[in-house]
Design a protein that fits this description.
single chain, alpha/beta, Rossmann fold, eight-stranded mixed sheet, 8 strands, binds S-adenosylmethionine, Methyltransf_11, transferase
Length: 304
């Protein structure tokens, strides 16, 4: 794993003091000395998921109570290394304006100024509200050129989470973790969610969002073969398999149009008739459906 500033200046491990002075809290000291390692890819990690329910940082990662995916459920049609697939930058947006506007509203509602935010599986665009200032936004993804262009990232690192799920950061170092339209590519979601749990502060939030678009050949089979409903349930299970996350909230919004609604309606709170009509309208709509699953580490804080 290596860390690069958006201006593409590499933070070399040989200059730990420089690094420490610029971002000491989220990263563990040993990483400062070994970060330049670039993980190589192979297809083997998807085969050894039964070996151990704990992540590498087993003493502190969230405890995995059970595995959600079968071995078959983790498979991809395209088994070439993910790093190769993302080797060239794609300066595109993966979802439409309505989806992005809904997501930004959700972030506006759930995130607070001054927070430390981890944006997993990120790219060149940020969906964070422009007017909100955070203490630090750390990005992660597979393509350094995309990440270097992302205007909201203070730092970023490149790591294939299907090869190694360990996030080389201190326990309890982020107020929020985000993952947008990417969870379908994770072959070891249980371990990744356990690591996110570990790096979140108590009361920290993990916001997962997705639509129905995907790089089909790179999505795991459990996702490819699912429906919108079953994909939501899959993400709910990813949360539930890690001890300590609060009951996941499901947020759905169909029909696009962008903006409004504080990040979409929590569907389970709607009277049946309205929810049914919204789903019907959604099924007729050509805009990208919005799904988010949100849970907190240990408890959901109340902000005045
Ligand atoms: C559809 S893009 C979404 C990018 C960004 N979250 C957004 O909203 O525009 C999927 C992202 O997942 C990341 N990704 C895919 N497979 C990955 C893997 N095995 N490990 C880490 N990141 C991966 C890629 O870097 C890519 O940027």
């Amino acid at each position: 794993m290596f860390i690069i500033h958006p201006n593409l200046k590499l933070c070399y491990p040989s200059a730990p003091t420089q690094l420490q002075s610029s971002f000491s809290p989220p990263f563990t000291t040993p990483i400062l000395h070994s970060r330049i390692k670039i993980t190589s890819s192979s297809s083997s990690s998807s085969d050894n998921h039964q070996e151990n329910l704990q992540t590498k940082s087993s003493s502190s990662a969230g405890r995995i109570k059970r595995l959600v995916l079968t071995q078959e459920g983790r498979t991809k049609l395209n088994i070439s290394p993910d790093r190769d697939f993302y080797a060239y930058p794609r300066f595109v947006t993966h979802v439409d304006d309505g989806f992005i506007s809904t997501l930004t509203d959700l972030y506006r509602e759930r995130l607070r100024p001054g927070w430390e935010v981890l944006d997993l599986m990120s790219s060149w665009v940020s969906h964070l509200p422009k007017e909100v200032e955070f203490k630090r936004v750390v990005g992660h993804g597979l393509n350094p050129q995309e990440l270097a262009k992302n205007p909201r990232l203070d730092y970023f690192f490149v790591k294939d989470l299907n090869q190694d799920q360990e996030l080389e950061m201190e326990n309890c170092s982020f107020d929020a973790a985000l993952c947008t339209v990417s969870v379908q590519y994770l072959q070891q979601p249980e371990k990744v969610f356990a690591e996110v749990f570990r790096v979140l502060k108590p009361g920290g939030v993990f916001i997962l969002s997705f639509s129905n678009r995907l790089f089909y050949e790179k999505a795991v089979s459990a996702w490819r073969e699912g429906t919108g409903y079953s994909r939501v349930q899959l993400v709910v299970q990813y949360f539930q398999c890690v001890e300590g996350f609060t009951q996941p909230e499901i947020i759905r919004k169909f029909g696009g149009g962008g903006g409004g609604g504080g990040g979409g309606q929590a569907d389970q709170k709607l009277p049946f008739s309205i929810g049914w009509i919204m789903r019907l309208l959604g099924s007729l709509s050509t805009s990208d459906p919005f799904y988010a699953v949100v849970a907190y580490k240990n408890f959901k804080p109340i902000y005045e």
